[in-house]
Amino acid sequence: MRKLIIAMSVVCCAMLGVWYGYNFHFQNQVEFESEERMTPVTHLVIHSFEETPQQMLDNLREYGLSVHYMITAEGQVRQLVPENRVAWHTGPSFWAGVNGLNTSSIGIELEHAEFGQTAFPKKQIEALIVLMKDIVARHHIRPENIVGHSDIAPEGKMDPGRAFPWQQLAEQGIGMWYDISEADKMPENMRVAVLLATIGYPVKGRQVVASAWAFRERFMPEKVPYDAHIAERGKQMFLARQKVAALPPEEREAALSQVPPIYPPDDGTYLTDPDFIRVLRAVAYRYQQQRAAAH
């Protein structure tokens, strides 16, 4: 009987290893203090970081932040916060009418030596796909609510980065992509801000240009040039925003308007480039149809 139990345990472990995929390691080693989640999980947010995993953990603690999962470049998955508890990973955020996504989302951080500017390691993406499929299935997260940090906070965030394989994930049934032939199914006179809002992006004030840049990162990465200094710029902007957040409310908005934008200077084509507008219309149509079907 003992031999039978041992044999069955070995088989179960082997099956679990196959289910998690090649070189997929799961660890639950670090937990951050967090409050119990009071609302259902409706969003899944992807991040990336340039530091070592230990440096990332140290930075999260220093700034009172947290995230549910971290995946190293080697494909090791570590759960840092239980899914039934809130992790503080989105900051000020917005997506399709929802403000502040911390309470409704699960966050995943990806280690990347160049902050998402070049291809992500194969083992890491394989592990991510397995994890995301599991989370999406258990929480019934809709495809249009699988987002990057830059999608929900375009004025201050650029992760997971231009090289994150959104199209590959969509081909695996995770998230959404587009069919360029559907661009003509959207009215020609729709403004860029309306099209971006149809997808879910924030579009108040200078958010329109920021969201247009975030859209390019996700759906037109070939239009986003490699930026070797993007991680450092992102860090400086984060620190600047942390400083602004400490100001009295009456001073905060004015100070925030002085923080330089995270995207490069507008060369006059952000909102007028024909290729951008055509892809934008195709994506907006796909998201519009997805949301209509959900209701």
Description:
With 295 residues, this protein is of the alpha/beta class. It is globular and about 50 Å long. α6 (192-199) runs parallel beside α10 (274-294). Mean pLDDT is 88; it is low at 1-24. The chain is built from ten helices and eight strands. The protein has a domain at 22-176: Lysozyme-like (3-Layer(aba) Sandwich). The protein has a six-stranded mixed beta sheet with strand order 1-4-3-7-2-8. Strands 5-6 form a two-stranded antiparallel ribbon.
Unreliable stretches (pLDDT < 50, length at least 5) are 1-24
In DSSP terms, counting alpha (H) and pi (I) runs of 4 or more, how many helices? 10
| The level-1 CATH class of the domain at 22-176 | Alpha Beta
Q: State the shape.
A: globular
- CATH T-level fold name of the domain at 22-176: Lysozyme-like
**Please, what is the CATH homologous superfamily of the domain at 22-176?**
Peptidoglycan recognition protein-like
- According to DSSP, the number of beta strands is 8
- Approximate strand percentage: 5-15%
Gap between N and C termini:
53 Å
Helix content: 40-55%
Adjacency order of strands in the biggest sheet: 1-4-3-7-2-8
* Largest sheet, strands/sense/barrel: 6 strands, mixed
The CATH architecture of the domain at 22-176:
3-Layer(aba) Sandwich
- Compute the average pLDDT: 88
State the secondary-structure class.
Answer: alpha/beta
